[in-house]
Design a protein that fits this description.
about 325 residues; alpha/beta; TIM Barrel; binds zinc ion
Length: about 325
């Protein structure tokens, strides 16, 4: 055990968690290529000027910190994100991710996730967190590190299944957490397998307050959420403004249900605006009108208030809970 101060690892360096202000716990500003492009062309987002306009609108709405959840090989663009971080120095805190996405995005025969041994991949992850990210995002074959470090590790799981590559990436994330204290965020496919992910990570020794589950809003089952919260982990609800899945009102009511049940300290909020037309500034470049990342603060938080969520709960969700969830676990370091 050490007496090190708690810290959050941003692109431009470590900061006191208390300095984060309002936090969007899962979002995207730049997404450059990768296997998601096979799913939809809207995943390509490489306009730095548009990304900066979008970030500015989030700041104008009261935001301060954003966790960008693009892992190596799946859209992460270190040079563009470094440029944005430098241009917003002193104005915004940006956190970048290492880790993995769901197994669907990796070749099951010859990807490095498949062929390289677990402990060697743990070393690759630890290096991204403690030395600096690979500017080529492990798209290989050359690794060149920048000074900026990853501040969170991502893992993806599939729809109602956790395949062997995903089990491997969960073990790697757990080992990386035990070595570095880094928080872990999990992409659950349509909100499924959250309890199984928790059980796996907890059994490997990860503390519950270093586990953040994403996309549970796509499985809008408040009783399921309660069982997940009973594990002591965080749920990062994302994607208000996604009426194609569920109306905002359902998400708002489910959040209120959890608050009323005493889980106010385990809820995080995000937009996860990871597609071109999910963002106002990108859309505008093609003459489209749309909502964007600021919607979380301009529309969804007011809805929470309208249905009776207290200001103290909103402060916890936007400001206080991220200070716990995103801080490195110092007790793991020696
Ligand atoms: Zn995302």
């Amino acid at each position: 055990m050490t007496n090190q101060k708690k810290f959050v690892r941003t692109i431009l360096g470590d900061i006191d968690p208390k300095d984060m202000g309002v936090v969007d716990c899962h979002d995207h500003l730049i997404k450059n290529g990768g296997p998601e492009m096979e799913e939809h062309v809207d995943f390509l987002m490489i306009d730095t000027a548009a990304a900066q306009k979008e970030l500015q609108s989030y700041l104008d709405a009261g935001g301060k910190t954003m966790v960008t959840m693009d892992p190596p090989n799946v859209g992460r663009d270190v040079p563009r994100m470094l440029e944005i971080a430098k241009n917003f120095k002193g104005k915004a805190h940006l956190i970048m991710s290492t880790g993995f996405h769901k197994a669907k995005f990796y070749d099951k025969y010859c990807s490095w996730l498949k062929t390289v041994g677990e402990d060697k991949i743990v070393a690759m992850m630890v290096a991204e967190i403690e030395e600096g990210m690979d500017i080529h995002s492990y798209n290989g074959p050359v690794v060149e590190r920048v000074a900026a470090k990853a501040g969170i590790i991502k893992v993806g799981t599939g729809y109602a299944t956790i395949d062997p590559l995903e089990q491997k990436s969960l073990r790697i994330a757990a080992k990386t957490n035990l070595k570095t204290g880094v928080p872990i965020l999990i992409h659950t496919q349509l909100g499924t397998m959250a309890l199984e992910v928790c059980q796996e990570l907890l059994s490997l020794g990860v503390k519950p307050d270093k586990i953040i589950l994403s996309h549970l809003n796509k499985n809008p089952d408040k009783y399921y959420y309660e069982k997940v919260c009973q594990q002591g982990v965080f749920i990062a609800f994302d994607g208000p403004d996604r009426a194609k899945y569920y109306p905002d009102s359902l998400l708002a009511e489910n959040i209120k249900y959890l608050i009323d049940k005493g889980y106010q300290k385990q809820i995080l909020l995000a937009m996860d605006a990871g597609r071109f037309y999910y963002q106002t500034a990108y859309s505008a470049t093609k003459g489209h009108i749309s909502y964007g990342i600021a919607y979380m603060l301009t529309h969804f938080v007011p809805l929470l208030k309208e249905i009776g969520v207290s200001q103290s709960a909103i402060d916890d969700i936007l400001v206080n809970n991220p200070q716990v969830a995103l801080a490195f676990d110092n007790s793991k370091r020696n």
